[in-house]
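Contributing new records

If you add data, match the layout below exactly. Sequence lines come first and carry their own label; structure lines follow with theirs. Keep one chain per record. Anything else will be rejected by the validation script.
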Amino acid sequence: MSELTPPLVLLVGVVALLYASVGHGGGSGYLAVLSLYGAQPGFMSSTALTLNLIVASISAMAYIRAGYFSWPLFWPFVLTSIPCAFAGGLLHVEKSIYFLLLAFTLVFVAVRLFRPQEEYFVAKRNLTLISGLLSGALIGFLSGIVGIGGGIFLTPLIVLAGWSDTKRAAAVSALFIVVNSAAGLLARQASGRLELDLFSPLIVAAVIGALLGGYGGANRLSPLLLRRTLASVLLIAAFKLVLNSN
C-alpha cells in the first residue's frame, strides 16, 4: 500500500472503538476499511491480524478483570483453533478467491450486526468436547485464511448454542481472537508473507479506539445504531470485493 491517508487512520480507530466495546478485535472491520482503500490481500490480512491482536488483548484484559472469563469454556475451542489458524495462514489462495471468502465473511458479520444483541439468551447446556474441538478447528482455519481472529463467529455460536451467556461468550471470544491472530501472524511470518509497511499510525489509532471502546466510549450513542452503521460499511465493502474478484 503506497500511503496511509488521515481518513483511513480515523476509520481504523473508529472500528477499534466499536468492536472493543463488545469484546471483539475488529478484524472484519479493518479488512472492510482497507478493501475500500484498495489495499492488497497480503497487507490487508497482516494488518487486520496485528490490529486484532492489539485490540482484542485490551478487551480480553478488561473482561478477565471483570470476572467473566471461563477457562472450561475456552480451552476446547482454542486447542484446535491455534494449529488450524496457523495452517490457514500458511495457505496461499488466489486473489479472487480471497476476495470472495472475505466478502462472505463481511456479509455474515453485517447480518449479525443488523440484528439486536441476543442479551436474552442464557446458558442452558454444557459444551461437549467434540463440539468445542470441531468448532475451534473450522473457525480457526477460516480465520487464518481471511485474516481475522474468529470472535465474530465464536460469540454467536456460544450464545445461540446455549453454552454460555453473552458476557462470558464475549470474554472467551476476546482471548480466542488473541491466540488465533497470533497464530495467523506467525504463519505469515514463516511463509514470508507478513506485510506491515507504513503501519505505526494504524497502531496508534487502534489503541486509542480500543481504550475508548473498552471503557464505554461507544455507549454514549445508541449501540444498535452504531452496529447498523458499521454493518452498512461492511456490506459496501463486500459488494466492492465481489466486483474486484471478477
